[in-house]
Specification:
By secondary structure, this protein is of the alpha/beta class. The chain has 2 domains: 176 residues, NAD(P)-binding Rossmann-like Domain (Rossmann fold, 3-Layer(aba) Sandwich); 143 residues, N-(1-d-carboxylethyl)-l-norvaline Dehydrogenase, domain 2. The chain is 51% helix and 11% strand. Strands 3-2-1-4-5-6-7-8 form an 8-stranded mixed sheet, sandwiched between helices. Helix 2 links the parallel strand 2 and strand 3. The longest helix has 23 residues. It starts with a strand and ends in a 7-residue tail after the last helix.
Length: 331
């Protein structure tokens, strides 16, 4: 396997880097927080974002982003979408000849761009020719515990795509291939918005009838939006679509789900963000999807309801009632 640098020391970046390191490869991981670097060096644990998980001795934490990027052949991105532009600006000029594997999800709320679109804008248009995105049902802690799962990888470059599929797959992680980049980016982003809605349902003490209805109608909402942007319909019924959506809506490990639950219990978004180090990607994505869906004239009632709850302080139970009372003429 080529020299690999993982950028991002959160739970998912750490879990994925450790997974690759467990395949008996030295994996270097760039981490912004010095305390996490010291934690990994001293006790082989990311005590801040992935506590309780013993990390491989092959996982090497590093602090010099530029020098480590220069030395690597493959760069794996595991950075929250709100920080990804800043990372691209830093590594521009040293990353152009590398294979980029993106694990990050979301739309940038200011530009309404996906992760790959930001890379093309900031780094160079040709970066898309060596770009791979991986997505699917994959909680960080469960991968760290070696629970088997399947994900999907997408790239315009079939040679690189097959290389990543072969090198990264194992009896723990099975990787499928596709060529629908926009479909993968849309589904993996909006599912975080729907996960907030699912957490709200849980926080309102509603049951599985409500959650199953949410997931089903949300899958229709997401697919309509994605197809409008040029995605393939079948993507939304696959691992990165309905697979990841089900995981985040039924699995309490999702930070977006947890945020929704806390909102429904009466906490404000500001209160929650002040008391947690974890970033719920669905918050930024909710803002972006609200603007972008209006721009392309796609009705997204569930996503709009989440927006009103998060940013207009709408009562969650009233928002649910409003969704149930919507006109049936278009349904």
């Amino acid at each position: 396997m080529d020299k690999i640098l993982v950028i991002g020391g959160g739970s998912w970046g750490t879990a994925f880097a450790n997974y690759l390191a467990s395949k008996k490869n030295e994996i270097r991981i760039w981490i912004r927080e010095n305390e996490i670097i010291e934690s990994i060096k001293n006790i082989r644990e990311n005590s801040l974002f992935l506590p309780g998980i013993k990390l491989s001795n092959n996982l090497i934490p590093v602090s010099d982003l530029i020098q480590e990027t220069k030395k690597a052949d493959i760069i794996i991105l595991a950075v929250p979408s709100k920080y990804i532009r800043n990372i691209f600006e830093k590594i521009k000029g040293v990353v152009e000849n590398k294979i980029i594997v993106n694990l990050s999800k979301g739309f940038e709320s200011s530009s309404l761009k996906t992760i790959s679109q930001i890379a093309v804008e900031v780094i160079c248009p040709d970066i898309i020719n060596s770009w791979v995105t991986i997505s699917g049902p994959s909680f960080a802690r469960e991968l760290a515990h070696k629970h088997p799962t399947a994900v999907v990888a997408v790239s315009k470059n079939e040679t690189i795509l097959k290389q990543i599929q072969t090198d990264f797959s194992s009896d723990i992680l099975r990787i499928y291939r596709t060529n629908d980049l926009i479909g993968i980016e849309v589904s993996s982003s909006i599912k975080n918005v729907i996960a907030i809605a699912s957490g709200i349902i849980k926080g309102c003490d509603l049951g599985y009838n409500t959650t199953a209805s949410l997931v089903t109608r949300a899958s229709v909402e997401i697919s309509k939006f994605g197809i409008k942007l040029g995605a393939k319909k079948e993507t939304f019924w696959g691992l990165a679509g309905i697979g990841d959506l089900m995981l985040t809506c039924f699995g309490p490990l999702s930070r977006n789900f947890q945020l929704g639950t806390r909102i429904a219990k009466g906490e404000s978004l500001k209160q929650i963000q002040k008391t947690t180090i974890m970033i719920a990607e669905g918050v930024e994505t909710t803002k972006a999807i609200k603007t972008l869906s209006e721009k392309v004239d796609i009705e997204m009632p569930i996503s709009f309801a989440v927006y009103d709850i998060l940013f207009n302080n709408k009562d969650p139970k009233k928002a649910i009632q409003a969704l149930m009372k919507r006109s049936l003429k278009q349904e």
